[in-house]
Write the structure tokens for this entry.
Amino acid sequence: MSITKSDVEHVAKLARLELSDAEKEQFTEQLNAILKYAEQLDALNTEHVAPTSHAMPMVNVMREDVAAPSLPIDKVMLNAPDEEDGQFKVPAVLE
Amino acid sequence: MSLFDLNLLEIQAKLQGKELKVTDLVDQSFARIQDVEPKVRAFLTLDEENARAAAEQLDKQLASGGAASPIFGLPIGIKDNMVTEGLTTTCASKFLSNYNPIYDATVVSKLKAAHTVTIGKLNMDEFAMGGSNENSAFHPSYNPWNTEYVPGGSSGGSAAAVAAGEVYFALGSDTGGSIRQPAAYCGIVGLKPTYGLVSRYGLVAFASSLDQIGPLTKNVEDSAYLLQAIAGHDPKDSTSAQVDIPDYLKALTGDVKGLRIGVPKEYMGKGVDPAVKDKVLEALKVLESLGATWEEVTLPHSEYAVAAYYLLASSEASSNLARFDGIRYGVRSDNARNLLDVYNMSRSEGFGPEVKRRIMLGTYALSSGYYDAYYLKAQQVRTLIKQDFDQVFEKYDIIIGPTAPTPAFKIGEQSGDPLTMYLNDILTIPVSLAGIPAISVPCGFVGGLPVGLQMIGKALDEATLLRVAHAFEQHTDHHKQRPQL
């Protein structure tokens, strides 16, 4: 499998990244090199091997469903790039 | 002589005996920072005013009732991916250059409860992605042993600050080697605990199934004290282990008689600098002289670890870093005219090249049609790598090898080629995938640069690691060497 510039454009769109032409060229080349390196995994037969998503054995961790205070809104808003009346403000979603 | 050349017990005794004040220790930190920081550049943010105020407060406490913690009053540096209330936390990214956290990471709360003094926030590779600190969006840090060389990464600022004597000790985080490799390059002790031993609450997530916080210190005893202060279950991190935390100091008996050491042939062969290998063999002789035995073992899937790791870590990163959307915090692009612009432009302007590269790789590996070939395959290989360790630990108490295949490299030497850079982590990544603990301790010098010895333990058996590392340290003086700056 090898990645083309249009694959890179598609993935960038999924990742919400806007890449310059130079970045697209560079990432096409570098991602191909990395994925080619990763192809060595194909040498291993993993047909009957269970995947590990987590190194330590663990089942679902539950807690009582009890309401607890959230972070205070005025403090949360301290880091907001834009806000109004205690709400995050963004530009128009639809033009 | 630096106050930081005293060991922890000596410092605590002097504090109790009124021969030394916490303000003296904090003065020592800032005086040293004034002297050497222009050469080392380990810090992103200094918190001098608050640190001096905290020191005065602790001195009052000392005068009225004594020191309630074995690490009382010690100046500490925190890697800049752990949130600190009211103190800028950037992850060395432009995206978070204005981020002022409104809460403390659990490790930071625990350090406050143990009465350490936070001196500032330490440089790193952006979002902990990198092994040289060259990926910091602000400036690189420099190796105190030779400032033409990298300090390693991603916890490079943490390692450099400790090695340069700017702080007494530091916290770092390790996803694929980011505590152990910089500790090795800077000639100090770096411990990556078992996954889940230390809470990740307030650690900005890179790869959640791998990330772990740990201590960077000048010696093993300090590592045990700092681990003791930060380890333990945290209800705020449901992946933190629900286990009893042993007394790590009691483990430092100096006794390694009968210890069975496995030395993986994959860690001593191709790609490992022969001079580094010699230092490891010398270290094994020291342990043999103390009554341990070692044999060659095999971890047959080691060569696949780097490929599996970069697929898994990048996939997790692409998901974790989706939260940086320019809406709730961080730097929003001034050029955004609609909501999609806010996402696209803020992320593109805020992230550096390595971060973008890994988000791209991870997004690709998780995207429709490729998931089985890359992500699932890598998870299966992770199982094989974990089984390799399980098999060796059936017969051996500990695994020993080098931490990194070479000593530190020159700044700029590898920055053009991401794949070469990834291969520096070839000996630390398998441990991360298996979730087990490992410690890097100084074991000599090659060409004037420190070499790290990596000791790898069974899950949750930090006590054995610390015991063996401490015994080794008692019979060597590598950890007592200090760089001339």
